[in-house]
Amino acid sequence: MDNFAAYQATAYSVRDRLIDNWNSTQQYHSSKDPKRVYYLSLEFLIGRTLDNALLNLNVKPNYQKALTDVGFRLEDFIHEEVDAALGNGGLGRLAACFMDSLATLDYPAWGYGIRYTYGIFQQKIVDGYQTEYPDYWLTFGNPWEIERLDVTYEVNFRGYVEKYTDDEGVDRYTWEGGEKVVAVAYDYPIPGFGTKNCINIRLWSSKPKREFDFAQFNEGNYDKSVEEQKAAENITSVLYPNDNHLVGKVLRLKQQFFFVCATLQDVIRRFKKAARPWSEFPEQVAIQLNDTHPTLGIVELQRILVDEENLSWDEAWDIVTKTYSYTNHTVLPEALEKWSVPLIQDLLPRHMMIIFDINLFFLQEVEKKFPNDRDKLRRMSIIQEGNPQYVRMAHLAAIGSHKVNGVAELHSELVRTTIFSDFVEFYGAEKFTNVTNGVTPRRWLHQANPWLSDLITQKLGGTQWLKDLSQLSKIKAYATDAAFQKAWMETKHKNKVRLAEYIKQTLGISVNTEALFDVQCKRLHEYKRQFMNILGVIHRYERLKSLSAAERQKIVPHVVIFSGKAAPGYYIAKLIIKLINNVAEVINQDPEISPYLQLIFIPNYSVSIAEILIPASDISQHISTAGTEASGTSNMKFVLNGGLILGTVDGANIEIGEEVGDENIFFFGTLTPQVEDIRHEQMYRSLTLEPRLEKVVHSIQNNNYGDSIIFEPLLATLRTDYYLLSKDFGPYLDSMDKVDVAFKDRAGWAKKSITAAASMGKFSSDRSIQEYALRIWNAKPVTVE
Fold first, then answer.
1. What is the CATH number of the domain that holds 598?
2. In which residue ranges of the chain is pLDDT below 50?
3. Whole-angstrom Cα distance, residue 240 to residue 259?
4. Which residues contact 640 (CB under 8 A, 6 or more apart)?
């Protein structure tokens, strides 16, 4: 038997345990009939499951011994598992953390999403450029899912709407879909830590109503005979299809409706088992929208209640708004989802009628409260006027939900004062709240960093801190203890060695494990400012080149690591990756400088790579332009693992700073209230670049890092400098110098690292979930006996 076969056998054995717990949990919940939470997300970035399941079930030592007895080492084949490629970035990883916390805290909850055949693309670097390849993560099956051919629902598209008058003289509508597909359920058990509670993520896969048109086949139309099958399966084939063309837009909208339509049928089927009246639906069901992607669920539930269950419009709308709540993840205008009215009318004709009605009744209420304010009506309308008209999904989500939350204190304040300021005035401030994001310590410390987890457990006398992260604060008492500092920094060094081995194995580069590891790993985007980071690396390299050999000896050596994917159609982000790789080639091949500076781009960033990368960092960079990052969760993971932050006063960085103390975080840069003023000023004057930045730009233009013509579009972004790179570049470099000074004091650095990690109790996803349950869902834990 090889390692892969051993992995499969182990996975199926562990899955059987999960199924036992899952069955017990569902039976117990059915008997108690509690209020259930349904978390709707188009992404669940779960990562690998085997190690997590073994730790949560507390059976890892048993399996290690059993496998050793038959000649295998668990550590050798745990990496045989392919990451479940069901997400894109922070949104999907947050959803996975929340599912872990819901299970651990004994909440009766389900996640719902899509079972993508191809996940986010595989990223390979070819000649310095990002190249995308399909990520067919299901090649060898997925032992963690259970196909539920007994749980299927029909989903309709297109077709027509018929009006009729019912027995009571009320106008009613029926929607007859022209295209019909079938949603098939796949269940993914999620075990809690230290509890029997095992909840579920139900993922939908799209299948045709008919597998095969035999008449077409007999007539020789072979392609035509399987056309329906292909069209149906395409709906769930790719995570977020490229929507910069019409076919992609249609497919993405189909995905969103397919997912909410199947989910609501499943939720309603479960609700109806208890034969409760519809008025009790919000007392039994809480549905959380993770961003605007599932917003069509609001419209679909209204359609079901009015068209199929024959409730009055007002009764139905009251149920809908009490059931749904919405998490906003961005205030960036370009990221707020909009769909053209003709597209929705074609694909979902009845839903477009309902959206117009929701908007009409809503604007009538606004008009009553703010008479003759046409500008306010225009701003608040779900429909954005133009040719064509557009549906603003964030407005629909806010109007159709009883609570709207942001994901960090600053972000929630921006939600209230920018995109939803009119809605706050209309509804009152109590509808808009904050729930700061969190991460699960089970995955992001206990699993990802076993050496540090063992050290903390030993010091605290047990693993209870994994279910109550506030207990971490007790290790602050040892922050100046020399023996504890030594043990703490030894775990950091072990993690650096582990990462260095991975880099050597995948890229063939040996890195200095005594250097400061400086990491920025996240989606490539202009607002996240990887561009500023690489410009800073060029500045450091050229400064090192100007020093004598003796002077270089005094400089703190850095290993700078980037990792992250750019969206396939995002040209500027892809140019940043190209620049990083070109600069890496120059630096790493310079024998004078490479002992003091190395630059690494790790391709194909994933949860599994993050688990190796995050525990090894000394400094991580979270340097978005102030006011652009909703929260961030990787910043929490880095600090939890004893890495310090170099960052802007933005997102959850602010709250992390409040917890760890100003002396244990390196802040720099423009503050949020000043950003718009600076942008406004820059529009009316020619921009003079910060002198050190100008020098770096000239160096790129002089072809020192490859043909500069390639980078002209990237450098051109500095002329308008929307993301304030020039304004923040000087303070950024000065802050990096402060990092170097601090790192030279090894005892002082150890104290900072211990204190920062010990201050992270607030940033557990358990705390986030408890806040949702108490303030938004009104849901209570149900402990399985």
1. 3.40.50.2000
2. none
3. 13
4. 439, 441, 444, 445, 757, 760, 763
Asked if residue 232 is part of any domain, the answer here is: yes
Burial 626-659 (b: 16+ CB within 10 A, else e): bbbbbbbbbbbbbbbbbbbbbbbbbbbbbbbbeb
Closest CA to 10 of 48, 54, 58: 54
Quote the pTM value.
Answer: 0.96
List pLDDT tens digits, range 82-102.
998 788 888 999 999 999 999
- Alpha-carbon span 567 to 120, nearest angstrom: 10
Q: What is the number of alpha carbons within 13 Å of residue 475 lying toward its C-beta?
A: 32
Cβ burial, residue 589 (10 Å; 0-12/13-18/19+): exposed
| Range of the structural domain that residue 25 is part of | 1-32+48-82
| Of 765, 502, 483, 715, nearest in space to 608 by CA | 502
Rounded Cα gap, residues 104 and 193, in angstroms = 5
Position 782 in a domain:
no
- Residue 189: inside a domain, yes or no? yes
Residue 785 counted as domain residue: no
- Alpha-carbon distance 740 to 555, whole Å? 8
> So which residues are the catalytic ones?
329, 522-523, 528, 633, 637
- Measured CA to CA in angstroms, residue 196 lies from 33, 62, 175, 784 at distances of 18, 18, 43, 6
Q: How far apart are CA 240 and CA 255, in angstroms?
A: 8
Domain count within the chain? 3
